[in-house]
Fold this protein.
Amino acid sequence: MLEKIFGSRTRVKLFRLFLTHPEERYFVRELSRAINEQINSVRRELNNLEEIGMLVSVEQDKKKYYTINQDFILYPELRSLILKSRLTLEKRFIEAIRTCGSIQYLALTGYFVNDEQVPVDLLVVGNVNRGKLDKLLIKFKESFGTQLRFTVMTADEYRYRRDITDKFLYGIINGKKIVVINKMGK
């Protein structure tokens, strides 16, 4: 949707990255890897965005770093638009995951709650078709701009790990998350 509005897939990916991580600064090669686009198209879009004042750059250690200009006049509106489009994408993603099997618990963590310290972005409990889930994650990888990390476990494994106070599971249970499905009780 945004590519059609903004006319460039690279520009949309840069918007998404900068507007969802406004405190971060990036250099060109890092951006090229992060959004999986050719370095020349990244450079071209960075120049365009810097020219209109949306990005600012600073030279440090012989590298040029870019960051979002939070004082840019359209910053609040663009950030809101990117976040709303992300919500729409996440909603489609959740609906697609529901088709992967009998899911008893689904929690979105990590990427979905802007916490990179969490070891997974997705915890799925139930009887899940792994092949279908893998294909779904590959399909959505480009849309999210990142490879989603996930864990799938059966309901019995979940209960066992919960009962023994498994450190990994409790890190997710007690951490920041969005619980989409919870048929497990606690």
Remarks:
- The domain at 86-182 is CATH 3.30.460 (Beta Polymerase; domain 2).
- Residues 75-98 form the longest helix (24 residues).
